[in-house]
C-alpha cells in the first residue's frame, strides 16, 4: 500500500475512464486554448533522439513486412519568453531495451540538448508513461531541477510507482510526489494555446496535446494512439503483442482522428513515431529541426 494521495486519485480516475466513452469536443478544446493569458507559441521544434527499426506490419494490422523507421521524437514548443518541452527523450540504456538485443541508432548529442532544454523550460509534459517518452524526466542527472517543473497526471505518476513499463523506470511514491502532479476531467488548458486531452488506451495515463501557434496553425500530438499516420488513415490498430492496450478506446480515438484529418485541414496530426511524417513536417517548415537553448 502506498500512502500517497495521488495514488487514490489515479485509481479513481482509471475507474471513471472504464465507465465513460471517449467523446472529445474539438470546439471546447479550441476555446480552452484561448482561455490562458499570454501570447500563443511562436513555433515548434522537433528532434529525433533515437530510432527503432520495425516492420510496418507491427505499426498497423495487415501492413506490409517492409522495414520502417520508428522515430523517438521530442518536441519543443517555443514561446516569446520561454519554452515547454513535450516528451522527454531517454538515456541509452532505456533505448537499448527497445532493441530486443539489436543495437539501433541513438543520438547522444540530441538527447543531451533535450536534457538541457528540460532543465531550462517553463514546464515539461509527456503524452504517456512509457520509457521512450518519460525516461528523460525519470532517469536524469538533473532530477532535482527537472522534476519540480514536470507535469505528470496522477495516473502517469501512479504507473511509475505501481506498474512501470520497464523495471528501470520504477520509482517510490515519495519520489513521484516531487513532480507537479495534477488531474483533470476531459481536457485542460496548461498554457496559452496549449491543451491536454485525456486519452487513455495505449496506457492508462495517455493524453493528447493540442497546440495552436500565433500564426493560427493547429497541431494535435497524439502520443502512441497510432505509431504511424497510416494507422489513422486506415483506422487500423497496431499488431504488437508485447503491448497491452484498451483496443476499444484506441479504435474510438482512431476514428475521431480519422474524422479530424478529413474535415479539419488546418490541424496537423502528429504521430509520434512516424519518421516519414517527421521528415515531411520538417521539409514543410511546420517544425524546426533544432532544440533551442
Question: What would you note in describing this structure?
Answer:
Helices cover 34% and strands 22% of the residues. It is α/β, with parallel strands linked by helices and 293 residues long. It has one domain: Ribonuclease Z/Hydroxyacylglutathione hydrolase-like (Metallo-beta-lactamase, Chain A, 4-Layer Sandwich), CATH 3.60.15. The protein has a 5-stranded mixed β-sheet, with helices on one face. Strands 1-2-3-4 form a 4-stranded mixed β-sheet. A hairpin with a 5-residue loop joins strand 9 and strand 10. The N and C termini lie far apart (42 Å).
Q: How is the secondary structure organized here?
A:
Layout: H1 5-19, H2 26-33, E1 43-55, H3 56-59, E2 67-79, E3 82-86, H4 92-98, H5 108-120, E4 123-125, H6 131-134, H7 143-146, E5 151-153, H8 154-162, H9 173-176, E6 180-182, E7 187-191, E8 194-198, E9 207-212, E10 218-221, H10 229-233, H11 247-263, E11 267-270, H12 275-283
Parallel strand pairs: 3-4, 5-6, 10-11
Antiparallel strand pairs: 1-2, 2-3, 7-8, 8-9, 9-10
Helix pairs in contact: 1-8
Amino acid at each position: 500500500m502506498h500512502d500517497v494521495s495521488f495514488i487514490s486519485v489515479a485509481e479513481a480516475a482509471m475507474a471513471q475512464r472504464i465507465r465513460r466513452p471517449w467523446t472529445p469536443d474539438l470546439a471546447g478544446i479550441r476555446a480552452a486554448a484561448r482561455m490562458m493569458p499570454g501570447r500563443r507559441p511562436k513555433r515548434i521544434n522537433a528532434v529525433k533522439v533515437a530510432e527503432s527499426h520495425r516492420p510496418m506490419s507491427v505499426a498497423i494490422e495487415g501492413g506490409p513486412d517492409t522495414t520502417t523507421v520508428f522515430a523517438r521524437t521530442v518536441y519543443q514548443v517555443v514561446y516569446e519568453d520561454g519554452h515547454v518541452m513535450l516528451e522527454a527523450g531517454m538515456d541509452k540504456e532505456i533505448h537499448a531495451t527497445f532493441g530486443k538485443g539489436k543495437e539501433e541508432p541513438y543520438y547522444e548529442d540530441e538527447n543531451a540538448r533535450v536534457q538541457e532544454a528540460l532543465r531550462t523550460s517553463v514546464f515539461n509534459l509527456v503524452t504517456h508513461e512509457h520509457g521512450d517518452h518519460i525516461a528523460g524526466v525519470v532517469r536524469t542527472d538533473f532530477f532535482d531541477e527537472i522534476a519540480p517543473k514536470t507535469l505528470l497526471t496522477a495516473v502517469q505518476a501512479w504507473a511509475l510507482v505501481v506498474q512501470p513499463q520497464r523495471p528501470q523506470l520504477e520509482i517510490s511514491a515519495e519520489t513521484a510526489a516531487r513532480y507537479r502532479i495534477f488531474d483533470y476531467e476531459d481536457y485542460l488548458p496548461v498554457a496559452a494555446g496549449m491543451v491536454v486531452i485525456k486519452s487513455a488506451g495505449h496506457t492508462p495515463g495517455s493524453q493528447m496535446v493540442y497546440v495552436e501557434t500565433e500564426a493560427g496553425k493547429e497541431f494535435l500530438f497524439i502520443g502512441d494512439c497510432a505509431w504511424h499516420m497510416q494507422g489513422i488513415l486506415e483506422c487500423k490498430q497496431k499488431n504488437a503483442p508485447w503491448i497491452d492496450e484498451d483496443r476499444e478506446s484506441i479504435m474510438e480515438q482512431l476514428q475521431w482522428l480519422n474524422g479530424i484529418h478529413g474535415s479539419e485541414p488546418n490541424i496537423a496530426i502528429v504521430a509520434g513515431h512516424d519518421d516519414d511524417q517527421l521528415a515531411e513536417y520538417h521539409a514543410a517548415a511546420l517544425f524546426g529541426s533544432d532544440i533551442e537553448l
